[in-house]
Design goal:
Layout lengths: L6 E6 L3 H9 L5 H12 L4 E6 L10 H4 L4 E4 L12 H16 L3 E4 L1 H8 L4 E4 L5 E10 L15 E8 L1 E5 L4 E6 L7 E6 L2 E6 L7 H10 L1 H6 L6 H16 L4 H7 L3 H4 L1 H4 L1 H12 L4
Parallel strand pairs: 1-2, 1-3, 3-4, 4-11
Antiparallel strand pairs: 5-8, 6-7, 6-9, 9-10, 10-11
Length: about 290
Amino acid sequence: MEKAPLNIGIFNCYPKESRDNFDRSNVGHPHHMYRDFLSRYVPLAHVTVFFLADLEREFPSLAVLDRYDGIIWTGSDLTIYHTDDPRVTRQIDLMKSIYAAGIPCYGSCWGIQMAAVAAGGEVKKNPKGREWGIARGIRRAAPGKESLLLKGKPDTYNGFIMHLDEVTRLPEGATLLAVNDHTHVQALEVRHGKGVFWATQYHPEYNLFEMARLISARAEALVKEGFFTSIEAVRSYADTMHALYRTPGSGHLRRELDVSDDILDAEIREQELRNWIDYLVVTPTP
C-alpha cells in the first residue's frame, strides 16, 4: 500500500506518574495500541514514541519532527485548560508549530482537544459528566458523510470512550464531523496554518480487552460518580467485557453489553486510523 516506509511519531501525552500507575493497575498504554495497529496495517513503518508530558525529557524539536510523515496524539489525564501547567502548555505550543509546519496529525480524546485548542478553540468540563466505556449513538454530521476520515463508517455507530472534558468552541478552520447526545464534538477536522488534524473524542485504537482493563482501574471513580453501586459491580462488568473479547460471537454477551460489530470488528472500529494513513499521510488531501 505504501510507496516507501513511513515515519510515524506517536506522542504519548500521559505524565510518567500516570504511566507508572497504568503498570501497577494492569492498564494498557495507548502508544502500544497504536503501535499494534501500525504493525498490522503498515508493517514497514518506522515508529517512534515521544513522551511529551515528561518535563525532564528532551522535547522533540520541529527539525526532528519534520522528518515524520504523520504524528499520532494519544489520550492523557492532564487537563488542557490548566494553563498554569507547563506539561500542558508546551504541548499546545508544539502543536501550534506542527500546524505551521504542515505535518498531518491524528488524535483521540486528548488529541481532539489539542486539535481544537492549538488552533484557537476551547475545551471545558462536560456538564453531563463522564462519558465512559462505550459512546453510544455517534452520528455522522452532514460534513462527516463526505469526510475521508469517516469514509466507510456507518451513519450511526458506537465507539470506546473515557473522558470528562469536551470541545466547546470550534476554532476557525474546523469542521464538525460527528456528534452524539453526550458530547457534541465526537469527530473533527481542523485545518490551520499548513496543517490538517483529524481527531476523535472516542478511541478507535481500543478494543474490549483494553477498555475492560481501563474500566477496572477507574472503578473507584465510576462508583463515586454513581455509575455502579460497588467496585465489585465494576469488576463484574469488566469481566463480562473480557468474556466477550474472548468469544465475540456470543449472542447473550453481546446483548448483555448491548454491543455489535461496530465495537467488536476491527475492520469497522479502526476505520478512522486506516483512513488517516491512506488519505492524509500516504496521499495528502488537497
